[in-house]
Design a protein that fits this description.
four-stranded mixed β-sheet, about 25% strand, Rossmann fold, about 260 residues, single chain, seven-stranded mixed β-sheet, alpha/beta
Length: about 260
């Protein structure tokens, strides 16, 4: 291949594609970086994939703080900061996803409203491994510490990335990050580990609401519900029933929306 042809291929590869979504309620324009079909699908399904999440975010109070744990490429972080007067802390350890998360923040001019951290959140503060389901942009089902799938079953995939991981407790106590008013946790299987080391945050009355993905068929996830109930968080069973996947690889999973009572 001639040098000029090669340079043109480099130019084409480095030119980012973006899609524009106009929020139907606020009329705000939101931009998302597109690298492959998965990033395009995430943008196209913003309002349909998790409608309870969209509705929840729309009702955030002004000047609130939102933690997006397992932010992926930042669909909900970007949406929340675009339509609300809030600050967002987004946590995403996977390298491909973090790159696009930053692209989305910069493209939407939200660097004053969103701080992104390339951190894993779990139940320990340590240097550890993130086992990847695949090495691709906007991928999911990655697992901290152990090579398991999102159903906590062993898998043969061997891709691994080194990361720093910490707990919600240490984010607040050791690292002095602000206490969130709203907390979203979607980490494909270890939500229960995050909740194990979150009591110092859960007892803080500034935390008003938690949206967390739970599989009620898993005993580890039932412990999440028990723990949150001890801190006066309740959920609406009808909301969960509507959100529960009835078939497919995510059968039994649902977004549980907890409010403090």
């Amino acid at each position: 291949m001639e040098l000029n042809q090669f340079k043109q291929k480099i130019k084409n590869k480095t030119e980012n594609l973006f899609v524009t979504i106009t929020d139907p309620e606020t009329k705000k324009k939101i931009f998302f970086s597109i690298h492959n079909e998965t990033t395009l699908w995430r943008a196209q399904s913003l309002y349909t994939k998790e409608p309870v999440t969209i509705s929840w975010i729309r009702n955030f109070e002004d000047d609130s703080i939102f933690y997006d744990v397992g932010a992926n490429i930042g669909m909900y972080s970007i949406f929340a900061a675009s339509i609300n007067k809030i600050n967002v802390l987004a946590f995403e350890p996977e390298s491909n996803n973090f790159q696009i998360l930053m692209e989305n923040i910069i493209k939407n001019n939200l660097h004053d409203k969103i701080v992104a951290y390339p951190l894993g959140i779990s139940n320990e503060t340590e240097i550890t491994s993130l086992f990847l389901s695949q090495f691709t942009k906007a991928g999911s089902h990655h697992m901290i510490q152990k090579n398991l799938d999102h159903n906590l079953k062993k898998r043969a995939i061997g891709f691994r990335q080194g990361i720093f991981s910490t707990s919600l407790n240490d984010l607040i106590i050791k690292w002095s990050l602000p206490v969130p008013n709203y907390l979203k946790i979607d980490v494909d299987g270890i939500e229960y580990k995050i909740i194990e080391e979150s009591d110092l945050l859960l007892k803080n009355k500034n935390l008003k609401s938690i949206l967390i993905e739970i599989n009620s068929n898993r005993k580890e996830d039932l412990n999440i519900i028990k723990t949150l109930s001890k801190f006066d968080f309740k959920y609406d069973k009808s909301q969960v029933d509507l959100a529960t996947r009835k078939s497919g690889p995510h059968k039994g999973y649902a977004e549980y929306l907890f409010y403090r009572v």
